[in-house]
Design a protein that fits this description.
By secondary structure, this protein is an alpha/beta fold. It is 35% helix and 21% strand. Strand 3 and strand 4 form a beta hairpin. The chain is globular. 44% of the residues are buried.
């Protein structure tokens, strides 16, 4: 049975990147914190913005790293080691190029799929991939040579609306996971498609 104790939303820090696709993980954390009346505060020792949140009868840490995306593992390690949180109790929320906007899915294990934030987290965890992921679809450019500028770009209004709906559903499903069980949460989220 996996009990989530830490949820990390991946992002690049600063206003310049706040509205970019690569920050979808942070959008999720901000919405989750807001829903539970929590204010994220910067904690230098954890290299990120954090809040402690109670969902059902579970205490969960929320974290948005303030390192660059490529060094997200530094924040994950700092907080998880300090609070003795095992890898299988961590959920990493990130943008997913291989899903269109409006789709979000849970996953456990697997490789980084070219995502530099995940790549660094896996390295920082000693190549342990047992953490959970929440992949938020942001779509993919037609030209694969433009991946970097695509993820560092701002989604169109319609795309952002679809991403936001998927995030809202993913938050509800995370709550289902914490209050009821993971399988129910997965089944609900994986049958959802924002329109």
């Amino acid at each position: 049975m996996s009990h989530l104790k830490l949820i990390v939303g991946l992002a690049n820090p600063g206003e310049k990147y706040a509205k970019t696709r690569h920050n979808a993980g942070a959008w999720y954390i901000y919405q989750l914190a807001k829903r539970h009346n929590q204010i994220l505060k910067e904690k230098k020792k954890f290299f990120g913005y954090t809040a402690r949140c109670r969902i059902g009868n579970k205490e969960i840490w929320l974290l948005i790293p303030t390192t660059s995306m490529n060094y997200s593992g530094k924040a994950v390690i700092a907080l998880s080691v300090y609070y003795n949180i095992t890898v299988s109790n961590i959920l990493i929320v990130h943008d997913e190029l291989y899903f269109p906007p409006g789709i979000a899915k849970f996953k456990q294990n697997g490789n980084h799929g070219g995502h530099n934030g995940l790549k660094n987290i896996i390295q920082s965890l000693g190549n342990n991939t047992q953490f959970h992921r929440l992949r938020i679809g942001v779509g993919c450019p037609d030209d694969r040579n433009k991946l970097v500028e695509f993820v560092l770009g701002v989604p169109k209004i319609k795309e952002k609306q679809l991403i936001d709906r998927a995030i809202n559903e993913a938050i509800s499903c995370t709550e289902t996971w914490l209050i009821e069980n993971r399988i129910k949460a997965i089944n609900r989220l994986h049958s959802f498609k924002a329109t």
